[in-house]
DNA sequence: CGTCATTACGGAATGCGTAATGATA
DNA sequence: TATCATTACGCATTCCGTAATGACG
């Protein structure tokens, strides 16, 4: 088999049609150049250059081989590029899980930034509830998730990417809509409250239960999706607690009310495996907004 | 820059995911294999294999590079093939000159054999009178010609590829058509004879003049092409001498008559430059029929 | 303690450069 | 005689294989 040096030698001679000039171009002397070309000819099994002491010219076989040699060397030049880009996280694939809610305010800007700063990264989106994302992360089906606590922080690392207040959503003609002040837990006394699945939307379920712990509302529904909750509210089935960004969903016939008291923060976490090695992931993490 | 050996080493390890087995496959021991892979990684500028003492696996960069490496090695495998085929004359281009007459019986079979035995040879056809072919050969526009003497045998080599008798062509109702015996020179006495251009169809011109030297026919036309001659005969403008294969042109209204006496042979020569180096030409020459 | 990748070291092979050769105009 | 590719030869580098080291289960 021939070597890449031999290819370079041949191409140089073929282009210069002169061993001396070709050797100069390759920063070497003629004799080794001669030998390299001879070796290449032996390896290929065909005479590539017709040469005597007066002229050098390509044979037809040499003409044909020159094309291949150039193609090969060009490929050598660029072969490492992709690998380097992948290594630096500038190319590759990111399998990103997200909850329907996170898509409202967080996912869009993130995707926009990704496509601007890492245009060679393909993002494959998977809409899943948080437990589904955690499952996917652990199985290696996802590289990064956008979800809510809780999760096993031994194997999963995370970072808060957004924090927003919780608010109430009530039918437009509801008495709570007319109060014109932040609602307290007590305001919900006796209200029909729509809440979340304790397993599939545990985070919102617990936020709701915690906020309303002192009053004793009737909790009937066990819904997974924020949007479903709001649609049920619009249908007059009750009131609910949702993250403030839900206001932007544009559902008609409902009113959003602030809640009284501090600390009703809804956190969205970026979650990934601690042992993840994906360069794309590492790179994406460096550009994630961090909220403390 | 990396070497092809390094690529092979990397591909072997990437496929075996085990340095020991990969080394065995490459007929070498582990240590140099390790070093080759390390060198490759340094040359590429990215870690390609994630390895500790228990497992070996591809990084994402390595995954990307593996594709390139395979493509490159495949190209290396096949790079020499075309050159070898060209060298052996089994691929390439043959620029072939021919006279209209040679096409009748010789060109077709030749082209058929070429496409069967050398399917990767492209034949580019140039219909030219013999002087035009010789010009083309000398200028390097043609590789091989099918023409008639004379030509300069110092620079051009040749071989007779067919020999056929000369015959007379006369109008169907002509008195010579009714004789029913081979015609002699004397039979043409007083006939209107159509002959050939002394420069552009010198060979047939001289054949005609030589045969008819003793009689004294009236020679009026100066035609280049055999077909034109026959059409003129059909039109009643005279009689003419043509190669026997002209019978197969299928012109109506004419009769072909044998000529008396021996040696009225029409030779067709394959002609090429003595200094021609084209492997295709060499290969084609070996399969040309040779008539002595 | 066994497995497996890596580092250490000695010897062989490859490759370059200088010098000599040969062939051509 | 001048040019230019090739062969001859000495030296440096590269690369392999054996042996030793190190890390991990």
UniProtKB/TrEMBL annotation, chains A, B:
Q: What cellular component terms from Gene Ontology apply here?
A: protein-DNA complex
Q: Gene3D superfamilies of this UniProt entry?
A: Periplasmic binding protein-like II, Winged helix-like DNA-binding domain superfamily/Winged helix DNA-binding domain
- Keyword Transmembrane helix present in the record's keywords: the answer is no
InterPro entries, from UniProt? LysR_HTH_N, LysR_subst-bd, WH-like_DNA-bd_sf, WH_DNA-bd_sf
Please report the stretch or stretches of sequence annotated as the HTH lysR-type domain.
Answer: 2-59
SUPFAM superfamilies under this entry?
Answer: Periplasmic binding protein-like II, Winged helix' DNA-binding domain
Keywords, in A-Z order: DNA-binding, Transcription, Transcription regulation
Is Transcription regulation one of the keywords UniProt gives this record? yes
State any single GO MF term: DNA-binding transcription factor activity
User: Which family is this protein grouped under?
Assistant: Belongs to the LysR transcriptional regulatory family.
Protein name listed in UniProt: LysR family transcriptional regulator
What is the organism lineage in this UniProt record? Bacteria, Bacillati, Actinomycetota, Actinomycetes, Propionibacteriales
């Amino acid at each position: 088999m021939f070597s890449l040096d031999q290819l370079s030698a041949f191409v140089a001679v073929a282009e210069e049609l002169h061993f001396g000039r070709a050797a100069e171009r390759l920063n070497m002397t003629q004799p080794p150049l001669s030998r390299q070309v001879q070796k290449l000819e032996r390896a290929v099994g065909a005479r590539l250059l017709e040469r005597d002491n007066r002229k050098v010219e390509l044979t037809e076989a040499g003409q044909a081989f020159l094309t291949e040699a150039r193609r090969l060397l060009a490929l050598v030049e660029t072969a490492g590029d992709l690998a380097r880009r992948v290594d630096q996280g500038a190319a590759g694939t990111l399998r990103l899980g997200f909850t329907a809610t996170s898509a409202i305010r967080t996912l869009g800007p993130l995707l926009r930034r990704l496509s601007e700063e890492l245009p060679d990264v393909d993002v494959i989106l998977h809409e899943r509830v948080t437990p589904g994302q955690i499952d996917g992360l652990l199985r290696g089906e996802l590289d990064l998730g956008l979800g809510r606590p809780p999760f096993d922080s031994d194997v999963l690392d995370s970072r808060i990417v957004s924090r927003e207040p919780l608010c109430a959503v009530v039918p437009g003609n509801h008495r709570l809509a007319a109060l014109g002040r932040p609602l307290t837990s007590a305001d919900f006394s006796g209200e029909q409250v729509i809440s979340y699945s304790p397993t599939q939307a545990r985070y919102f379920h617990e936020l709701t239960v915690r906020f309303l712990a002192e009053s004793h509302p009737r909790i009937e529904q066990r819904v997974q999706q924020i949007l479903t909750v709001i649609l049920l509210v619009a249908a007059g089935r009750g009131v609910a607690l949702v993250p403030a960004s839900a206001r932007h969903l544009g559902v008609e016939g409902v009113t959003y009310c602030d809640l009284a008291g501090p600390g009703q923060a809804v956190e969205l976490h970026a979650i990934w495996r601690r042992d993840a090695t994906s360069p794309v992931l590492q790179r994406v993490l460096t550009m994630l907004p961090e909220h403390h």
